[in-house]
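Take one record.
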Amino acid sequence: MAIAFPTNEPHLSGYFAPLHAECDAPNLPVTGEVPAGLRGTYYRNGPNPQFAPRGKYHWFSGDGMLHAFHFDEGRVSYRNRWIRTPKWIMENENGEGMSGSLASRHLTDPKLLELNSTVANTNVVWHGGRLLALEEAHAPFEVDPVSLAPRPRDGTAADVRWFTGDPCYVFHPMNAFDAPNGSIVCDMMKYDVPPLFPGPDGRQLSSGAPVASLVRWTFDLSGKSGAYREQPLCDMPGEFPRLDERFAMLPYRHGYYCSGDISASTKGDSLRSGLAHIDLATGQVAQYQPPAGDKCGEPVFVPRHASADEGDGWLLSVIWRAAENRSDMAIFNAQALAAGPVALVHLSHRVPAGFHGNWRPAG
């Protein structure tokens, strides 16, 4: 028999509380005007446990749930679905949670361990004509891009170069590319100590919430030095860095991120409330800050058209409205972030705090 969700777990309450139903919401109400050229689907993935876990819950262990916002000629519709992984199916058939979390794997039912199933809760990408739900520990899981239903499955070590530096932790890169001089450049959000995880002895590694900041690492492949060079890019803390994906693995100018820090979520809250746009050519940073208590999700860039200049387009972000416990899809002019959204698409329910999403253009 399924047990009740605990009320004292911070990542199972408030903004992080899981949804318990799937729904379809056509023709959502809009404030402002959705850009006519915005045609396609925004997909967002994140943890949403179907049942309460055995033992203590960790945010990274929840079943993946996809949220899809479909844009067409100024209208927006919404659909959410759990990703029907082997784990989800077995627990659904048994009517209860059968797995422990990251810190309590010993509580997982042996039958579930045999499946070695993904939870597919971290990202969702369009690749090779297929929509794939991702989680770092397992192979991708394919889903139908319209119904979100599951789809059935159908160098050498000598090339490695090692570089050494001071201990730190990185969840998310913004971009990486080959510089004209042959060096490799990597931009990322760097923590001095890992957030969300205890140390080897079980104690927290920091008395406060660790903060990430945007840095650039440059790896010189022409020299024999095993060191890399670090350059701070912005002192505004943040997480979930993104870019105009047409410039992924290429030299680029514009980056976007949540201005704040996911590691402050240990009490069910989060500092990642706003959005930031950094111009890497000038170093200037523009910021949007929502009303007090509201929280912005990862920004996703959509070009105005296929041949638009880098950074010419829109930013999409799902914003949690704390006072109403529901969410809006916010659409920003990416070149005028501080001016606020050009349109807000209103949901009547909350999209829980999650991880990553991507845009797939129509056609």
Summary: The CA atoms of residues 326 and 349 lie 4 Å apart. The chain has one domain: 10-153+161-361. The first strand starts at residue 24 and ends at 25.
